[in-house]
Amino acid sequence: MKTSPRVVLSPRKCPRQARSAVTVDAIFEATLQVLLATGSTRLNTTKVAERAGVSVGTLYQYFPNKQSLLFAVLERYLDRLMDRLEAACEARRGGAAEDMIEGVVQAYLQVKAEEAAISRALYYIVIELDARELVDKAIWRAERAIAAMLSTANDGQFSDPQAIARVVFAAIHGTVRMFYERDLPPMAGGDVERQLTMMCRSYVAAAGRTP
Amino acid sequence: MKTSPRVVLSPRKCPRQARSAVTVDAIFEATLQVLLATGSTRLNTTKVAERAGVSVGTLYQYFPNKQSLLFAVLERYLDRLMDRLEAACEARRGGAAEDMIEGVVQAYLQVKAEEAAISRALYYIVIELDARELVDKAIWRAERAIAAMLSTANDGQFSDPQAIARVVFAAIHGTVRMFYERDLPPMAGGDVERQLTMMCRSYVAAAGRTP
Amino acid sequence: MKTSPRVVLSPRKCPRQARSAVTVDAIFEATLQVLLATGSTRLNTTKVAERAGVSVGTLYQYFPNKQSLLFAVLERYLDRLMDRLEAACEARRGGAAEDMIEGVVQAYLQVKAEEAAISRALYYIVIELDARELVDKAIWRAERAIAAMLSTANDGQFSDPQAIARVVFAAIHGTVRMFYERDLPPMAGGDVERQLTMMCRSYVAAAGRTP
Amino acid sequence: MKTSPRVVLSPRKCPRQARSAVTVDAIFEATLQVLLATGSTRLNTTKVAERAGVSVGTLYQYFPNKQSLLFAVLERYLDRLMDRLEAACEARRGGAAEDMIEGVVQAYLQVKAEEAAISRALYYIVIELDARELVDKAIWRAERAIAAMLSTANDGQFSDPQAIARVVFAAIHGTVRMFYERDLPPMAGGDVERQLTMMCRSYVAAAGRTP
DNA sequence: CATGAATGAGACTTCATTCAT
DNA sequence: AATGAATGAAGTCTCATTCAT
Lengths: 211, 211, 211, 211
Hints:
The structure is a homotetramer. By secondary structure, the first copy, chain A, is an all-alpha fold. Helix content of chain A is 73%, strand content 2%. Chain A has two domains: 18-64, Arc Repressor Mutant, subunit A, CATH 1.10.10; 76-210, Tetracycline Repressor, domain 2 (Orthogonal Bundle). Chain A has nine helices and two strands, in the order αααααααβααβ. Chains in contact: A-B, B-C, C-D. Chains C and D meet through helix 6, helix 7, helix 8 and helix 9 of C and helix 6, helix 7, helix 8 and helix 9 of D. Chain B binds a DNA duplex through residues 1-2, 5, 15-17, 19-20, 23, 44-46, 54-58, 60-61, 64-66.
C-alpha cells in the first residue's frame, strides 16, 4: 500500500441513514474478519467488500481509500478499548492506591485476553499507516483515566499522578503485549497477573505521596 | 511457467568465496537502509538490490525469496541486540540485586535509543512474517541472561530468578517500546529511566529473597 | 508480499454480465491466436491480454493463473473436437461395419486437417500442464461414440465393440498425429486416407463377429 | 526459452579426451534425470550442471546454449531408439510377412514400455525446439528398416513396401504413444499387443502382394 | 446509490548466459 | 579448463481504484 501522496484519512461521509450505518458496521466487521482470517498482507478491499456482502464500489462510497478504512477501523477499536479502561478506572475511584492499580491490571489483562488476535493484527495497521497519533491519543486517554483515578486515592496524595500513571500504563501495556503477542503465555495466566500486580503495587507504594 | 512453489525461510547458499560474503553483507546493510529510508511497506527487493549495488538476481542467489531476506535481517538484528544485553548482564554480576537491575535498565535504554528507528521498522517484519519464534528465542536469551545475573546477587538469593527476570524484562522492553515507538519521548529521557528504574527496583525488592 | 500460493486449475469466476462472456471469449480466441502466431514457448499472459484487447488484470479476473487459462482453452478445444466426432458417428449409425469405420476415418482426418496447427500447439500444453486427465476424458468420449456406432452395424454383432473402438481410435488418432505433426504430409493426403482406411477396414473385418 | 534469433544447435566441440566424453555423458544423463524429476518447465542449465557434478561454466563449454544441449540429448535418444528397432527388424528378416510385423510390434512395445516417462518428457523438447527434422529422420530410419525387412518376406513381394511400412509404423507408434502416454494402460498390456498385432497383420495381409 | 468489470503500474521471481578468478 | 558469482530482461500475478451500467 502506497502511503506518501497526501492521502485523505477521514471517512467520506457520515452515514445519516440507518441503512448506511449498517453497511459501515458490516464493513468494519468484515475488515477485522479478513484481517484475522487471511493476515494483514493479504487484506484487500475486494475481500473486505465481499465479506461485508457489498461491492467494492459501495465500500469506496464510504471510504475514499483503503487507508481511510483501516484508519477508521483502528480508531473505532482503540476508542472501544479505552472506553472499557475508563469505565474500569471510574468504577474503582476512591479506594486505596495499590488496590486501584490492581484493579487496572486486572481489567486490562481481561480486555486484552479477549482480543489478543485482533490486537496483534491491528498493530500492523498502526505501522502501515504510521498511525501513531491515533495510538498516542489512546494512550493519553488511558493515562488521564488512570491519573484521575489515582487522584482519588483515599490513602495519600501523589505529587505527580500523571507521571505515575504514565509508567504504570506503559508497564502494564508493554508486559501484556509481550505475553499475549506470543500465542502461548509461557507463564500461567494467573502468574503474569500476580507478578505484574506486584510490580505495579510496589512501584506505586514506592512513589512519593503526601498523606 | 511456475508450477508449485514453496515458501522457504532459510537462506539459499552459504557464500563460499570472499566476494560472496561482502555481497551478503551489503545486502543486509542495504535492507536496513531501505527500511529506514522508505519504510517497510515501500521496501521491495529491487530497491534493496539497487542500494546494495548488486542486481536482483544476485540477491535471489542468496535468499530464495523476500521473506527469507527479511527473516535473516531480523535474526541478525536480534542476535546482536541480545549479545549486547548479555554482555551488559555479565559485566554486572555479583552486585546488589537492585543495582544490577538498574544497570540492565540503563543498558537496554541505551541500546534501544541508538536504534529506535530500526527497531520500529523491524517490528513490522515480525508481524508480516509472523516471526514470533525468532522473537521468542531472543526473549529467552534475555531472560536467561538476567536470571543468571540475578542469581549472583550478593545480597540474598531469589527463590525463582527466572520468573523475576521474565517480568522485569517484559516491563523494561514494553515500556521502552512504548516510549520509543512514539518518535518523541514525551517524557524527558532521564525521567523515563528514573521511573522505570524505580519500578523495577521496587519490584525486585518486593520479590521474596532468602538472605 | 506473497505468502503461500496454491495452484488452482479451475477458472476463477463465471461471467455474470453479458460483457464478461464477450471478454472471456475474446481471451480464448486470443490465446489460440498467440499460440499459433508465436508458438507455445513464447506465449505469455501479457501477449494474450493484449491480443484480446484487455488488460492483464482482466485476464486474471477470469483465470487465477496462466495454467488455468491454458487448461480451459484445451478443454474447450477437446470438447468441440469430440462434439464433431460424435456427430459424425451418429450420422453413420446403422450401416455396414467397414463403411462406418471408413466414415470415421474420413471425418477425423477432415477435422484434424482443418486445425493441424492448433492441434499441434495444444499438444505442448498437455505436456506442460500434465493434463492427461483431460485428454483421457476426450478419448473416452471418442471410444464410446465409436463403440456405440459399431453396435448398430447391420452386418453382424461385435463381441467387444469397446475394445475394437479403442484400437481403431488409437490407430486413427496416432497415425493422423504422426502425419499432421510434420507440416508436410509426406504422403499425398488421399494416400494416407486410403491406407489408413484399408488398415481399419481389414481390422474390423478380422475382428470376430456373430451374424 | 527464446528460440528465434538464429541459434546454433550443434555442440560446441567434439570431446577428444576421455575426460570430456565422461563429462558430456554425465551432462546427458543429468538432463534426463532433471527432466524426469522436475519436469520440462523447471529444467534449467544450472540444475543440469549441478546434477552432472560440474559447474554451469563447464556445461557451456560443451554446449553453446541450452537448446543445443536439448537437441543433442534428443538426437542421442532417438538414435539409440532406432538402433534397437533396426536390430529387431534385421533379426526378423526372411520370415512370413505377418510374423515379421508381429515381431516389430512386439519389439517396439517393449522398448517404449521401458522408457515411457523419458519418451514423454522428450516430446516436450521436440515441440520447444521445433525439432521435427530430427524426428523425421528417426521416422525415416524406422520406415526404411521396416520396408527393408518386408522386402525379404518369404511369402510374396509387396508392390510398395515403403508405403506399407509407413502406415504400419504410424499405427504402431501412434497407438503405443496413446496408451503409454496415459500412465495406466487402460487395456491389459497383453491386450494392446494382441489387438495391435491383429490390426497390423490384417493390414499387411490385405495389402496387395505378388507371390 | 449500488454494482462489479476493467485497468495497469508495480511487486516478486527465474534463468540463460557471461566473465573474472 | 573449470568455477560459480553476477547480470538483467522478461514473465507471472496482485490490488487499489475508477466508471459505465
